[in-house]
């Protein structure tokens, strides 16, 4: 694979979700995303109004997280987080599924949890990515989660929060792409730190990458 810097940047959600993120870190990520032309900047909800103002007119979207990182919030709270984030300027929502309920076999509850957030997101004309936290699931559970995301009206299925026991793997991205078909979004996130990592995920079927190291990955193309 041989992408230009601008082509690769368009795959990237430049991400800063650490609990101890400060204004300096947010400013750095926003500046880097604007410099390279990333797809979005992904931050915790507190930072959405500030980031949306900085990114206005730049062509870089403002992304935030809902039910993060555990997914065990009530559906009502996830919907509130979504509508609040959109009102504050978010363009994209990355929600976490109810992982325990998926593993318990309560597929209908998981589907309706996603559907409620999808409806709230799309009512605002925005994009929904659904984090299934692959590291906690069996392959059959991953397949079910992908099916539920598609049935519930999400736009993307996403591998990981980056806050659990593992991040994106080529095997998981391949499985997810096979499950959702060629036209559904697949986001790989967690542990993507090098150009080789990024290329491997794209070749496996990822259409978006969640990365905190966007600048250093893109700099590898200049070396």
Automatic annotation (TrEMBL):
Pfam families: DeoC (PF01791). Keywords: Cytoplasm, Lyase, Schiff base. It comes from the Bacteria. This is Deoxyribose-phosphate aldolase. It comes from Collinsella tanakaei YIT 12063. Its EC number is 4.1.2.4. Its main location: cytoplasm. GO terms for biological process: 2-deoxyribose 1-phosphate catabolic process; carbohydrate catabolic process; deoxyribonucleotide catabolic process. GO terms for molecular function: deoxyribose-phosphate aldolase activity. It is an enzyme of class 4 (lyase). The active site is at 94 (proton donor/acceptor), 158 (schiff-base intermediate with acetaldehyde), 187 (proton donor/acceptor). It is found in: Cytoplasm. It catalyses: 2-deoxy-D-ribose 5-phosphate = D-glyceraldehyde 3-phosphate + acetaldehyde. Belongs to the DeoC/FbaB aldolase family. DeoC type 1 subfamily. GO terms for cellular component: cytoplasm.
